Structures are given as structure tokens and as C-alpha cells.
């Protein structure tokens, strides 16, 4: 497991330099690379959460993005996890490649992590939380569990958005200790 400050990161991203922040602060090189990669594609992505990067013959960046597609004049939106490779060099972003793009879905966790998420969200009303990524844990008066979630108000025509949900377990009690819109 890696660490960002006091946050213990899950093993999902071994070998990555963890940035762990919303995507409004992307490095310019990465923002330009996203523009290059999606310039001629039938979909658009809006970066929402920047996880980090890995140095392997350039930089591999991992992000969660909202994907927007038009199919027969109907707009479809979902969240995807993308990995973009930027080769080494001064203008490496011009040769950027999309390595992977997969629909972000509920990640299969250890049974204990899944139990924490389900118990922590079962009494939240008016909003649905779908876990996209288990980020990790932090020891603070018990244990905080950090998740990136697709969040949607329970009403017609509401658009999903991303949140960072923090669930605390202390002495067997589970509670929400933070909900932040990304």
C-alpha cells in the first residue's frame, strides 16, 4: 500500500505516484494530452478526479472522467477510468495515447470493505451512491474508508456527479465523516 499524507492507499494502483485530487488542477501537459487523444474520437471526456501517474518510458496518468457520447442525437453520459501515456520528450503530449478506457463500475472489494460501504450508505436518503473506486484508509479515531462514488439524486432527470465519500468505523459504529463533491 502507498500513502498520500496520512491516507493509506489501496493496492489497486501499485507503482503510481499518487496525486489524489480533483481534476481542476491537472498539469498542463496532461490537459493538452487529453485534448490530443480525444480530438478525433466520437466521445468527449471531462476529467473529474486525477489519481496519479507512473513513470514507464514516459508518464502513464490515471483519471476518472465523465464521458459524453452522442448516439443517434441522444446524449449518453457515464463515468470511465482512463489511462493516458505521454512519451518522454519536449512535446511528448502531442504523441499521447489512450492506453485504457473502461467504464467505472462498482469495484469488487474485500468483503469487509464492501460491508463498510453498504452499512455506511444504507440510511442515506434522497441520493444514491455507487462506489467507483476504493481509495484507501486513514487511521483517525477509528478508521476512515475513502471512496470515489458516482452520486445521483433520487429524482427524475438528475445528472450523476462524482463525490469522495468518507465512512468512519469506530468501536463497531459506522458513520459518514465526509461527503465532498469532486
Written overview of the protein:
By secondary structure, the chain is mainly β. It folds into 2 domains: 2-103, Nuclear Transport Factor 2, Chain: A; 111-181. It is 12% helix and 55% strand. The chain has a 6-stranded antiparallel beta sheet, covered by helices on one side. A 5-stranded antiparallel beta sheet has the order 3-4-5-6-7, with helices on one face.
Mean pLDDT: 83
DSSP E strands, number: 11
Q: How many domain modules?
A: 2
Helix content: 10-25%
Strand order of the largest sheet: 1-2-8-9-10-11
Shape: flat
What is Rg? 17 Å
Flag low-confidence runs.
Answer: 1-12
* Share in β-strands: over 45%
What is the CATH topology descriptor of the largest domain? Nuclear Transport Factor 2, Chain: A
The CATH architecture of the largest domain comes to Roll
Oligomer: single chain
Main sheet summary:
6 strands, antiparallel
In N-to-C order, the SSE pattern is EEEHEEEEHEEEE
Write the layout of secondary structure elements.
Elements: E1 2-4, E2 7-9, E3 17-22, H1 28-38, E4 43-55, E5 59-71, E6 74-86, E7 97-103, H2 111-121, E8 127-139, E9 143-153, E10 161-170, E11 173-181
Antiparallel strand pairs: 1-2, 2-8, 3-4, 4-5, 5-6, 6-7, 8-9, 9-10, 10-11
